[in-house]
TrEMBL record:
The gene is leuA_1. It comes from the Bacteria. Its EC number is 2.3.3.13. The keyword Ribosomal protein does not apply. This is 2-isopropylmalate synthase. GO terms for molecular function: 2-isopropylmalate synthase activity.
Length: 388
């Protein structure tokens, strides 16, 4: 296959890594609804589940495979033949199936999770890829805990699984440990040292334990990865996964990176709310891109600058990510310019003196009432009229 070298593939794992969060479990029909919305968003790969883990997860992969057309549907396995058989079976209706198999790559995991050796782990990795390849062409391999793995051993593992037939190699920072330079450096090392690395797509899969998942993912892309894995709203194990909406908007906002995705960013707001509601996980108000305050301007200095020229305080247009609109929130920190803007919106054009009178009363009210709404503004105007 010929790849556009600047295209970044988007791999969504909301329904697998995201769904591992306690309390976020979904029914199969809820998962189908989200999968269809992910297809409308334009994601390239939907990781639909971990079929061996439960009959429900298996059935969800089957039903999602029937429900979407364009995206690749991916099923997770451990590096063993039993898991792979079940995953292959779950993908039988997928138009574009992918098996995502893998094993630990750090000495921590090799010794203390698998009680094994590097040699044995390498052999299991290769066997899993070769075995999966007999049933499915598209095989993604994950080197779990690659963030803490010895980079020379990681390179050896990645070289071996590409030779065994892996089409995508996933380099997870499973514990969200790396700094962006370290993570980007790992990807660069693989690019420079793994034979035939260009036969596979390098994928970044970062967790957010130190709040660096997005920064690490972008660093990985800068050093040659071309698939990014993440979830909507950044949900996921512990502190979560990379937020897809953040990485996509970083690439759009920084065209000098020269990278692009096929995502319809205008769908972000809607899918964010759908995932939040169905998974019962509120989106924090100050969450980048989709939080309720992401486009709300509340201090007087910012509001004044924004009203003079939106671009003074807006690097993304809210409508570009499907947000209803930017908001000028009236608080005790707001200035006359913001008040005037809202009064005009309500049909009241006041002269300087009139505005000054209303502004004084507005400040008194805003000190005691946190959310000033349109009714409050109309009352302030009416109050001024009866007092004059
Ligand atoms: O974080 C991780 O390492 C994973 C793998 C299973 C891909 O989720
Ligand atoms: Zn993960």
């Amino acid at each position: 296959m010929i790849h556009d070298p600047n295209r970044v593939y988007v791999f969504d794992t909301t329904l697998r890594d995201g769904e591992q969060v306690p309390g976020c479990q979904l029914t199969t029909s809820e998962k189908i609804e989200i999968a269809r919305e992910l297809e409308a968003l334009g994601v390239d790969i939907i990781e639909a589940g971990f079929p061996i883990s439960s009959p429900g997860d298996f059935q969800s992969v089957v039903e999602i495979s029937k429900s979407v057309t364009h995206p690749t549907v991916c099923a997770l396995t451990r590096a063993n033949r039993g898991d792979i058989d079940v995953a292959v079976e779950s993908l039988r209706y997928a138009k574009h199936p992918r098996i995502h198999t893998g094993i630990g790559s750090s000495d921590q995991h090799i010794k203390h999770k698998f009680n094994s050796t590097r040699e044995e782990i390498l052999a299991r990795a290769v066997d899993a890829v070769k075995y999966a390849k007999k049933s499915v062409e598209d095989i993604e391999f994950y080197a779990e805990d690659a963030g803490r793995a010895d980079v020379a051993f990681l390179a050896q593992m990645i070289e071996a699984v590409i030779a065994a037939g892996a089409t995508v190699v996933n380099i997870p920072d499973t514990n969200g440990y790396c700094l962006p330079e370290q993570y980007g450096g790992k990807i660069k090392y693989l690019k420079d040292n793994v034979q035939n690395i260009d036969k596979a797509i390098i994928s970044v899969h970062c967790h957010n334990d130190l709040g660096l998942a997005t920064a690490n993912s972008v660093a990985g892309l800068q050093y040659g990865a071309r698939q990014i894995e993440g979830t909507i709203n950044g949900i996921g194990e512990r502190a979560g996964n990379t937020s897809i909406e953040e990485v996509v908007m970083i690439l759009k906002t920084h065209p000098t990176l020269g990278l692009h995705t096929h995502i319809n960013a205008r769908n972000f707001y809607e899918i964010s709310r759908m995932v939040s509601t169905q998974m019962r996980m509120p989106v924090q108000a100050n969450k980048a891109i989709v939080g309720s305050n992401a486009f709300a301007h509340s201090s007087g200095i910012h509001q004044d600058g924004f009203l003079k020229n939106r671009e003074n305080y807006e690097i993304i247009k809210p409508e570009d990510v499907g947000f209803p609109n930017a908001s000028i929130v009236l608080t005790a920190r707001s200035g006359r310019h913001a008040l005037k803007f809202h009064l005009e919106r309500l049909g009241h054009s006041l002269d300087k003196k009139e505005l000054e009178d209303v502004y004084k009363n507005f400040l008194t009210l805003a000190d005691v009432k946190l959310d000033i709404d349109d009714n409050d503004l109309l009352s302030l105007v009416a109050y001024r009229l009866v007092r004059q």
